[in-house]
Design brief:
Bound molecules: spermidine
CATH superfamily of the largest domain: Periplasmic binding protein-like II
Number of strands: 9
CATH topology of the largest domain: D-Maltodextrin-Binding Protein, domain 2
Radius of gyration: 23 Å
Structural class: alpha/beta
Number of domains: 2
Mean pLDDT: 92
CATH architecture of the largest domain: 3-Layer(aba) Sandwich
Low-confidence stretches: 14-33
Length: about 350
Amino acid sequence: MKKVVQMFVTVFVVAFLLIYVTARFNTFRGYSGGETLTVYNWGDYVDPDLITAFEEETGIKVIYETFESNEAMLTKIAHGGNAFDVVVPSDYAINKMKEQGMLIPLDHSLLPNLQYTDQRFLDLPFDEGNQYSVPYFWGTLGIIYNSEMLDGRHLTSWHDLWDESLRNKVLLVDSAREVIGIGLDSLGYSLNDTNPEHLHQAQRKLFDLVPNVKAIVGDEIKMLLANEEAAVGLVWSGDAALIIDENPKLDYIIPVEGTNVWFDNMVIPTTARNIEGAHMFINFMLDPENAAQNTEYVGYSTPNRAALEYLPEEITGDQRFYPGPEITDKLELYENLGRRMLAYYNELFLEFKMHRK
Ligand code: SPD
């Protein structure tokens, strides 16, 4: 009897170990019962129906994770442990990842839908020849405001944010380069300034903004502004488009001093386990009809020339969100300032956040 029990226990332990080891091995390879693809994107930045359509079309199960800033994304990837197959960083972050050997060169033969991208968004300085990245969405950073909540006042400049009448009325997006950037822009410095004295001046200027800052927030900025819980926001253009769609009392401006024009592109990091699936996903998102559907859902501006045909003039003709090159060429692209300088920007931003407390 004792031997029978021992035999059962042995069989049970061996079976358990076999199942456990197989599961661990499959997870490591990016499989969990079927083929999987892990996508790491900004929050509120894809139409979930497109993910379902991709899964149905390819049989690949998508695991989807989100981030709220390039800095948060870079930290998570640098710490390893996550086998992301597709990531959507912005310009300077792509350059940084490229420099640090964190990206896999793309196989353009697997991306036939890249032909639909407008030439204007290809071959940009952060990734010449689009060796490592292809366009997803683009836009600007600007001010959204509710004139009714400001006694009919209209805003035009970064300086307006400091006006006494805006006490506790301003929301800021929780992102270091954006917030330090408005300090720099308002002082007439470049968004890529690396002079410590200029950066300190920008930080001091931001300390003066504190009484006007109601909160520093993530994606909830859209809901707060649309629901009129704040009158003014520092936002990315696509978020502004969605907010205005919800509440047409708001308007979005590109401040007269200028601002940042940015590009979010899809990349395949070296952590990828499913490189073929990653190319399939990228190509799927580059399909003009899919890109148009994504644009309508997400609110951001599409770099996909052919997708524009599927979108209403009301969207594509809105100069606030589709400014032409005559405007964007005058705006500044964030540059990769190097690891130490980016860390310094983050530190100044954290100090600014602490200063509010
Ligand atoms: N909720 C989606 C936000 C995407 C914004 N990307 C802008 C990056 C600017 N550097």
